[in-house]
Amino acid sequence: MNTKHATRRLVLFLALAAAATLVAYQTGLLERHARGRAARMTPDRAARLLEQYPGTVVLDVNTPLEFREGHLPGAENLDYQSPYFGAAIKSMDRGETYLVTSARGERSLKAAEHMADMGFDDVHDLAGGLERWARAGLPLEKGE
C-alpha cells in the first residue's frame, strides 16, 4: 500500500471516529460522567431520562418558598443553602439515579457536582434550571 492510500484511510478513519463520537454524545450514549463531574442535561434530555427511568430521584435544591412556586412533578425538596444539606446528602443512596434542579441551574450544578464528588454514581443537572424547563413547555407543579 502506498503512502497516499494509507493517508486517505487514516483521514477517513479519524473522520468516522469523530462522527461516531459526536452521534454518541448527541444521543446520550456518552452522557455518563466521571467521578466528580455531574452530567448536564437539557430539559428535553432530562424529560427523556425521567420517562425512560421512572425511578429517577428528582432533587430540587431551591428554597422551600421557591419549591412551592414551582417544581418538577414528584420532586423532593432539599434546600442547598440549608445548614443540613451536607448531612442529608450523606444519608442518601449513592446508587440511585438523580436529576438535580434549581431555579436557573446554578445551585443545582453545585449540588450535583458535590454529590458526584461524594461518590454518587449517576447524577444529572438540569442545565438552565426550572426556567429553561418551563420555557420548553414542560410541566411544573406548584405547592408542596
List its salient traits:
144 residues; alpha/beta; Oxidized Rhodanese, domain 1; 2 domains; 6 helices; 5 strands; elongated
Query: What kind of sheet is the major sheet?
Result: 5 strands, parallel
**Residue share in β-strands:** 5-15%
Number of domains: 2
Classify the secondary structure makeup into a structural class: alpha/beta
CATH architecture of the largest domain: 3-Layer(aba) Sandwich
Provide a short characterization of the protein structure.
With 144 residues, the chain is of the alpha/beta class.
Question: What does this protein look like?
Answer:
This protein has 144 residues and is α/β, with parallel strands linked by helices. It folds into two domains: 1-30; 33-135, Oxidized Rhodanese, domain 1, CATH 3.40.250.10. It is built from six helices and five strands. Strands 1-5-4-2-3 form a five-stranded parallel β-sheet. Strand 2, helix 3 (64-69) and strand 3 (76-77) form a beta-alpha-beta unit. The longest helix has 24 residues, at 3-26. 27% of the residues are buried.
Topology diagram in text:
Blueprint: H1 3-26, E1 39-41, H2 43-52, E2 57-60, H3 64-69, E3 76-77, H4 85-90, E4 97-101, H5 106-117, E5 122-126, H6 129-135
Parallel strand pairs: 1-5, 2-3, 2-4, 4-5
